[in-house]
Structures are given as C-alpha cells and as structure tokens.
C-alpha cells in the first residue's frame, strides 16, 4: 500500500435535481470515493416522513423507503451498487466489508441485519449507509481508499465507537504497508524513515466528516449522562450543567487517536434547529423520517 495524501476535507451543498446532499467533490475526484449527508428533500414519502426518508425502521411505507434509497444512490452515481444498511442498535459493533462477491455481501448484510452501528468498506462498488435524526453521522476516509460510515448517538459517543472505527481502518492499513510513504506529502518527511507507521500517524492521514446532528444548546440530558460525559471527556464537552456537546466529545476522541484538526470537516448544522432540511427526533416528538450518511467507491 502506498499512502498518498488526499485533499483536506470540505463539505458543500450539492444539488442533484431535487435531491441535495453535503459532499466533498474534491475527494471524489482524487479517490473515486463519494461521501454524502442527505437532506430530506427529493423523495416520495409523505406526512411526518416527507420526503426523502431513508429509514426502514419507522412506520413509513417500505416501498417508498426503497424508492428513496434508490433515488439517492442514482443521484450520486451509484445506482447499481449493493447497499449495506445496518439495523442500528446504539452499540459499537462494526460490519467489515472486505470482499464484493455475492456470498461476502450476503454475509455482511446478514451481520448488518443483526445489529451494528458502523460499516467499514475496503472494496469498490459497495455502498454503506446509516440513518439519523439527531445522532451524529460520521464518515472516515483513509488514503488507502478504505472508508467507514458510523452512527454515534450519545451512547455511541460515550462508548467511543468512532475510536473503534478508526482502529479498524488503522489495523487494515497497517496490515498491508508494503511500500514507502510518499515523501512529497505534507506528512511524508517526518515519517519516511519508519518501516511501519504508528497508529496515530496513520490516523493523521485520514479525513473525518461529521454531518448534521443535535447541537449542545438543544441536547439536554440527565444528570447521570452529563456526569458520564464530563468524567470521560472533561468539562470541555459540557455546554452547561444540563447540556452536553457531543461534537466536542467526539473531537477529543479523534484528537487522542491522532486525527488532525484540519482533517475534520464538521457541517456545523443542528438538526433540531434545521427541520426544514433535516429530520429531528426531538423536534418532532419522535415521529419523523431519517436522513442518511452514505459512502461508496466507484473505481476499481
């Protein structure tokens, strides 16, 4: 594996007809990896699920959900790709997709159906998506062109699921380090003498994308949850005595793993405050659709 620097992450709104997503076009041009955080427009669902509801676990018509997912994939240029969508259980289990054959994809889909909150994909031509309505959507991209899509509710943030996803990518990247670092990259000169990269050095080469989620001013929590976060992440994650900043907690975990601040692109959008474009479980009193975090690699 020859690690070459990928463009620093950036999120812009891209329109594909009536479907709008936050994505990074420079990343796609450089790596063939499409990443997207969907808005709620451009689908066929109605009522509280209007319109691009991607969640199959709400009471929306499943055929409409399938159509919405197909529309999103088609809009992003991945219309024919198999799609792995886990049953989200607010845990830390990951599905690893390292083959694109029918049997391997069936096995991955079965594992996803049993419950997982992250998907790590090492092969092209496979899409992964998780669904959200206040929890934190995260996409991690390695210069090896492996990627992970992660669902982090407050339980997932507290359990450091993002660290587990990073460690999975680092482990995979470390296993096939057979070629030297590109010394022309910004991180190459400092590490080119090493035979194998330390995990934190590998993590420093990754891009991390954080999509829309419930922000601190809207995330009121119990005293017990508040204490759990401040005990683990420090007072920096406390917005006040009854609100927690999930983004601050996540960033602390990312920094401790070696991810660089300039390698994190945060949409900086609160779902509770932006219900015209995103679903919010809290704002809708629990009755709403789900937007998605989606990623795939098209080229071989």
CATH third-level topology: CNF1/YfiH-like putative cysteine hydrolases
3D shape: globular
**First-last Cα distance:** 15 Å
Top CATH class: Alpha Beta
**Rg on CA atoms, Å:** 19 Å
**Count of discrete alpha- or pi-helical segments spanning 4 or more residues:** 9
Task: State the order of secondary-structure elements, H for helix, E for strand.
Answer: EEHEHEEHEEEEHHHHEHHEE
Which assembly state applies to the chains in this document?
Answer: single chain
Q: Structural class of the helix and strand makeup?
A: alpha+beta
Helix content: 25-40%
CATH architecture: 4-Layer Sandwich
The strands making up the biggest β-sheet line up spatially as: 1-2-3-12-7-4
The H-level CATH homologous superfamily, spelled out, is CNF1/YfiH-like putative cysteine hydrolases
What share of residues are in beta strands? Answer: 15-25%
Low-confidence stretches: 179-195
| Strand tally | 12
Please tell me the total number of domains. 1
Task: Report on the biggest sheet.
Answer: 6 strands, mixed
Tell me, rounded to a whole number, the average pLDDT.
93
